[in-house]
What we know:
Layout: H1 7-15, E1 33-39, E2 42-47, H2 56-70, E3 76-80, H3 93-101, E4 104-105, E5 121-125, E6 133-138, E7 144-148
The structure holds zinc ion.
Amino acid sequence: MVKEISVDTIWELLHKIPDPEIPSISIVELGVVRNVKFNEDNFHITVTPTYSGCPAMSFMKDEIVRAMEAEGISNYQLHTSLAPPWTTDWMSTEVKEKLKEAGIAPPSEKVQCPQCDSPKVESISEFGSTACKALYKCNTCAEIFHYFKKF
Ligand SMILES: [Zn+2]
């Protein structure tokens, strides 16, 4: 290999892959990428799927494969880890802030309107565009928004 590829390079590449549903958040920020290790000439990338109801995981894996291929990296292995299970607690405060900016109520004990912060909200549907999100309506500003379910 001519090009110097390090574990940091891999992290950088992964950081550029957006969540398929919330493009302002990368799969690293989402907490899906758990680990990158270099061992016996191979990079080992460990991912933990989000909710089982989310169809995005195979898409994310395809994106990882594509990102590696684009850089000419072939000495890597993709691992899936199911324990511990993915949780929204792995999202940083910064990421939750980004969700809010995207008009999505971040996971929390108490759902608040992402537009006006009102706690006076009601659930319209337990399933929004995907199983990960519920549809809510704000009774203060009438905004209809998605809530990223706490998990
Ligand atoms: Zn509101």
